[in-house]
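User: Can you write out an input/output pair for a complex, sequences first and structure second?

Assistant: Here is one pair. Inputs:
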Amino acid sequence: MARPAARWAARWLASSALMLFLVTAATFVLASMAPGDAAKAILSSQSGSYTQQQYLQLRDELGLDQPLTAQYWHWLDGLLHGTLGTDLFSGQPVTAELNARLAPTLSIILGTIVVAGLAGVGLGIVSALRGGVAGRAVDAISLLGLAIPNFWLALVLIELLAVRVELFPATGYTPLGADPEGWLRGIALPVITLSAGGVAFVAKQTRDSMAEVMSREFVVMLRARGLSGRSVVLRHALRNAAIPVVTVLGLLLVSLLGGAVLIEDIFAIPGLGQLAVTAAGSHDLPVIEGVAFYFTVIVVLASLLVDLSYWLLNPRVRGS
Amino acid sequence: MTPATSLVAATAREPGVLEVRDLTVRYHRGIRKPPFTALHEVSLAVGPAETVALVGESGSGKSTLGNAILGLVPAASGTIAFRGEDITCARPRRRRALTADIQAVFQDPYGSLNPVRTVGQTLAEPLLAHERREVRGAERTARVRAALEQVGLSADDAARYPGQFSGGQRQRIAIARALVPSPRLIICDEPLSALDLSVQAQILNLLRDLQGDLGVSYLFITHDLAVVPHIAHRVAVLYRGRVVETGPARQLCSAPRHPYTQALVAAAPMPDPVQQRARRRAYRAYQAADEARAPAAALSDPP
Amino acid sequence: MTAGRGRALPGRALPGRALPGRALRQMASRPLAVASAAWLVLVVVAAAGASSLAPYGPQATDLAHVMSGPTAAHWLGTDRLGRDVLSRLMFGGQVTLLGVAEALVVFAGLGITLGLAAGFAGGWTDRLIARFGDLVLALPGIIVLLMVLAVYPGSELAAMIALGAISCPVLLRVVRGATLAIRGELYITAARLSGLTGPRIVWRHVLPRLAGPVIVQLSLFAATALLAQSALSFLGLSTPEAQGPSWGNMVGEASTVVSQDPWLLVPSGGALALTVMAFGLLGDAVRDVTAGRHLAPPVRVRPVRAPSKPMPGRPKGRAPGTAPAGGSMLSVRGLTIAFGDLVVVRDVGFDLSPGEALGIVGESGCGKSVTVRSLLGLLPGGGRVTAGSALFAGRDLAAASERDFRRVRGSMIGLVSQEPASGLDPSFRIGSQLAEVIRRHAPLSRGQARARAAELLAQVNLPPGTLARYPHELSGGMAQRVSIALALAPGPRLLIADEPTTALDVTVQAEILGLLRDLREQTGMAMILVTHDWGVLADLCDRAIVMYAGQVVEEAAVGDIYASPRHPYTEGLLAANPHRTPAGGVLPAIPGTVPPPSAWPAGCGFRPRCQYATDACAGGPVPMTAAGPGRLVRCIHADTLVARR
């Protein structure tokens, strides 16, 4: 199996590199098109007025007057040497800033995937097997979960569970290492908010997929051979229904990156999403590029996991 | 003489409706795998108002031959001649014009009719395509109704949808569609295989009667040797893309000469217990002989 | 018997499916779809006509009634500046819905064109577009949106265009997939062969079929776009408050005063949620309506528990004069099976002696498969036994619970079905599937089970290397042998073979039939063989029952049935069999078509097609009567017909 695996790995590397290139280049281009630039923003925040000369000098210092391709090449060069540049405003290395903010974002995103995945698959299986009332209930809950705007839900949950009844903190984030319980409490509401839609999405796909598999002839034959209902469902049906569900989980992850931006804003969590918004507003180019890069890496890793799951789950993929 | 050349020699005298010579068709399976040869130098001829049956199992290439004649798959080498004209590499426009003369009836009566168009709309399509000035509106309707009646349905059925008919009735509709442009040759690709036994006989009789009334020729593709003597004048047996035996229908089916044809005949169970016991013994004997001849070669179970 | 053409009798009993013009009517009969459509119309009208319909201006303050909650003057209350919420919702709807429309236009335009291009062009164009679509779909879209908003601050148009563009691969995939699928349909080939040009085929056949899936995707995306637009507005990144109300920024405003007036969250959140739901429900309704049009009725998912207990019914006795075979292994009487209200099998009865091979023969739709599957409790969704009994090993299988069935399945009765490869789990190796069944029925270790699996494979003439293969790597014949091995593994006394060779080539079929015969000799198993092929019946079976329209019409030893059939249907079928008629003459055909269960004639089911029918045949249900030693027939004219022949 060496040759096909090597080919597959090469293809994957190529398409991942392509994606990283596209995202970062596009971000660069867009950022440069934006009116205003970092130099202006820095000078206006320091003192109300500034001279044109100061402006040009700062631009030269920051390297903003170089042509676009040169700037991008410079950034790429830095990337290949392991650095993402420095924050134009704070002077800190971008990598350090981003890494500090990685944990909160990942906690929320992975937490949501776990919750939405487990709950969604469970609900999906239950509603696929038991039609009637349970199925309708799941349908209704799914619909609500998908329709309610997550920012609205966040506000309601904060009001009910953090302000009126102080079960969870309304804002802020506690690192896992420092205080596990505080960490859990801190991410609980964000995860619940994001999971509402996620569970619905996953449950629906699981149900459709399970229903399709259960109607196939081989399921009837498995039962005809005396296998118990539980083994048929959990071992055989689930395995065959898994691929579309895995696909959906991958899509969910990508959409959660956008959701993170929203949620970190509402819950005042110092994560990558929050950083993305402020950096975009202040034209802090290296930081924007850095966030784009990190997000794309997350997506690439997620799609790698998804592809690996396909390979594990579907013997036909393995054979080819 | 090989089967191919004997067939060609036999028909050299009369200009046939269809003449296939040394036709080779290959399927490409991607860059890394070698192309798969579906047909290898196949030769065949069909005369006017004649039915030639093409018999083979799955993987024999029989459907591929029908598709090649219809222009649905390209030929790698060889020629296909229709009434003397070489149509092997016919351009799309010529192909479209040819559909007035060469038609097809397929195996699946459910898939071959668009479920959201009425029977009348579907039957009118061949007339739309050949927009001869004289075929308009009312005349079109008349021809559609006539075709429906010819196949044993009523003219009112033109307003109905395919979903309202049974499998056998849909197959009649498909035959009516094939008849509308008054073709010379109809490729019947397993038209009976998806039908119930009691309906198969009806459709078989219908096809025979139509041949008698209209003088149309058939290339009758089937895997079931039993129906061949009832509809075909001559037979060609295909195995893995090659013609292994040809001959007059009744003769070939009662006394086959090639081992593969013999296996086909012996393997098909007879609907009579006493005769079937005898045939079983014959098949067993045949199998033993086959094993002795070439123990590794499996005639059946192609991957 | 009307020979020759065999005119198709008017058997137009099949119900018409939903048709293009009727799709709307079908939607109209679904209350949720109607409610969603009504809501959307209301919202659009209220937003479009806000300037004339709204009771107040969007910025008209009423500082005397700040955060009042619903009152007569302000139906949905007022916000923190005393502005009427209802009016702001209506004006806000303009901007919000406009944003959705902008995104939708871009989404649809790009998605449909690229999808059609990919589906039709094929080759490199297709691959390029598909790859490009996958790439765009994997982009972290939020980055793109943030950057676009940085370039065009506050501009909803720019953000929505970007949203439509980065989401279009979803529609692209659907359109491309649907186009490819439709192009592969047989009737497209038929249309080509009718001489239609490419563009004409697209117009007549492809585009109408695309409408359904495209509308579904459009409504789902409208829901997504609405949520995205309101989120961006909530964050202040597009349509900030300064530009006027939008549903998103109204939620944002409400959040600032949530402790004083929580009610304010309700109208804005409610408007959003209801509209998103309406889009979603509409999409689902369109999907249900269009999906059901072209396919067979979907197989309803069967709950893993047993179906509800059958209604108690008195077993209908067999005709007097025929004693049931003493010591029979399986005794079925008066079996009646229905799907909902529709009866598909009625009053079926037969006996099976140990070691005997019984054939159940009939055409499609006669109920033979349903009959045998009911013996194992494996009826497809909605089916249940409503009357009769099936005595086997001290149990009545017609009234058995799921637990009873589980004891019988596999270990006492085995099943082999028609589909060779699709009867096997595609995700597991053959060895693993065999071992699982073996260990389910016997306490063996892994190693022992593996050894036993190899033995079973040898019994069905398969090499031991098959253990390591997957089902998709096997040919039809090999897969069917594996199915037989799986059925034999627990050592059942009775094997039910439901059309085991129908999907196989004739030479492969001969081998499988030979295998089944050998296995019966080796193990002494009884067998019930369901088939439509009279040759297969003659090859394998000792006795046969013929089914037509859900009933048994004749039962006899195999030799008797072929030599002297008693029922007109049996006679007709045998006469129409090409093996039995010398070539040259016309094939005697049975006129007419098999009636579906919804249109069974009163009295004798075969009467409309029978050449011997008289008025008496329509009188009432015809009982099974004796027609000789060990023979039964369901025909009131059986005796007179024998004389005639």
